[in-house]
Design goal:
Largest sheet: 6 strands, antiparallel, barrel
Number of helices: 6
Oligomer: single chain
Strand order of the largest sheet: 15-16-17-20-19-18
Length: about 450
């Protein structure tokens, strides 16, 4: 689950991160049954909250980090920005910051971070599923008449909601998935499974537990498709409605696994607060459904359901603040977007036409070791498969402008790339070894998640 955080720029905040623990190798996980709790069972969830931290994004919520502290990653791979967890924290320029909430860490067990880091996204090495079997996501029109009672909606949709757990080299991520075919295709968020080398799916009533294969994943839309073999059983698919038929004020329900394994099968209610809300995350512009239904860590990849029991969105992010009370600001990916992406992922394992430059970079004031370096983006890594590498761009170079426009931040570089396709070119003015050079660099196709 992404989480936006409202920032108080007048308050100084520190920066800390920690991590721990090991987990079984791929395919060797212990089967844990997490049936939906009866209505009269009460859960008390206690979490120690660390001091707030201004970061660009990080893992949090139900994620358990492995090994030593890895630092925070400010990543630019033009056309693909990564980082995976059940709850991710982002900042929106001028209004949003973030902090991490690891669970039950001893006080003082925090590591200072002097500057943001830049790196490639964690590599996803989950076994891939066969592609191109002709399956598509079906959207059903809005029925006539009045909606269903909430109890009926919950009973109808819950069998299609599953728990998703992903294990990677830097921790465990727990989220939600939605079954959309009887043969075992499951929809979730990209950030739930990003960086994983093993993914499991469990039905909430404990009747089935499966190793999942990755069909495909798309970073810009935060969507991923998994495939499980149900061993002679048929899964229960949800009915997907058309988000284009939604209206502001419509009743909706969010169904997912709040706090992961702590509160599976949680249902919250609200309304459609806004449609096609533009949200920018590290240069990616998304148009999302805004809802007042409560969305929490662990809801990532869950269902936003209309009053007819149709899934009309995939819950993905929320807004939250440590300084000001902010309630009822959740966001979901509309099914009009979901269908286009899912159909391409099943057919080819990727969304075609995603253009990237093939670098990671960050502000020169943080990354450059040259005290005389100009303001711009300091290149941290260059993919050797890229045209940028072939044209001579190297780590340590400073990109001061793109197409004549200054690039003090990653978002400026992304803005110049917006709307371009693989094969289009960018003109980079680069500070390289004490002199300025101009490079005409061709954008390339975004690589598949496993490459």
């Amino acid at each position: 689950m992404y989480s936006y955080f409202y920032d108080r720029p007048d308050l100084d905040r520190g920066s800390e991160e920690t991590g721990l623990a090991a987990y079984p190798a791929a395919g060797e996980g212990v089967v844990r049954r997490r049936p939906v709790p009866p209505p009269d069972r009460v859960y008390t969830v206690r979490r120690r909250l660390p001091p707030p931290r201004p970061v660009r994004r990080t893992g949090a919520g139900r994620r358990i980090r492995a090994g030593i502290s890895l630092g925070l990653f400010v990543l630019l791979i033009l056309g693909g920005i990564g980082g995976a967890v059940v709850l991710r924290y982002w900042d929106v320029p001028g209004s949003v910051s973030q902090w991490e909430r690891p669970e039950d860490r001893p006080e003082g067990d925090w590591e200072k971070e002097e500057r943001p880091a830049a790196s490639r996204p964690p590599k996803t090495t989950v076994e891939r599923a066969p592609l191109g079997d002709g399956t598509v996501l079906l959207l059903t029109g809005r029925p006539e008449g009045e909606g269903l009672p909430p109890q009926k909606i919950y009973a109808d949709v819950l069998p299609s909601i599953v728990s998703v757990e992903a294990m990677g080299d830097d921790g465990i991520s727990q989220g939600t998935g939605v079954v959309f075919t009887r043969s075992g295709y499951i929809l979730t968020n990209h950030h739930v499974i990003e960086g994983a080398r093993w993914v499991s799916v469990e039905e909430l009533d404990g009747s089935g537990w499966y190793n999942a294969k990755l069909v495909g994943s798309d970073q810009p839309t935060d969507l991923a498709v998994l495939k499980v073999e149900a061993k002679g059983r048929e899964l229960t698919p949800a009915v997907f409605g058309d988000s284009e038929e939604l209206q502001i004020g419509d009743a909706v329900f969010a169904i997912g696994n709040a706090l992961g394994e702590e509160l599976p099968g949680t249902m919250t209610d609200g309304i459609i607060s806004y449609l096609n809300r533009p949200v920018e995350i590290d240069g990616y512009q998304m148009e999302l459904i805004q809802t007042s239904a409560a969305i929490n860590p662990g809801n990532s990849g869950g269902a936003l359901v209309n009053q007819y029991g149709q899934v009309v969105g995939v819950t993905s992010l929320k807004m939250w603040s440590i300084w000001e009370p902010i309630e009822g600001l959740g966001f979901a990916i509309p099914t009009s977007t979901v269908k286009d992406v899912v159909d391409e992922l099943i057919a080819a394992g990727r969304v075609a036409g995603r253009a990237m430059l093939g670098i990671t970079a960050g502000p020169s004031e943080y990354y450059s070791d040259d005290p005389g370096a100009p303001a711009g983006l300091c290149v941290v890594t260059v993919d050797e498969r890229s045209d940028a590498y072939k044209k001579g761009l190297r780590a340590g170079d400073i990109i001061v402008s793109v197409n004549g426009r200054p690039t003090p931040e990653i978002s400026a570089l992304e803005a110049e790339k917006e709307g371009l396709e693989p094969g289009d070119t960018l003109s980079l003015r680069v500070w390289q070894s004490g002199t300025y050079v101009t490079l005409e660099v061709e954008l390339i196709e975004q690589y598949e998640p496993t490459e």
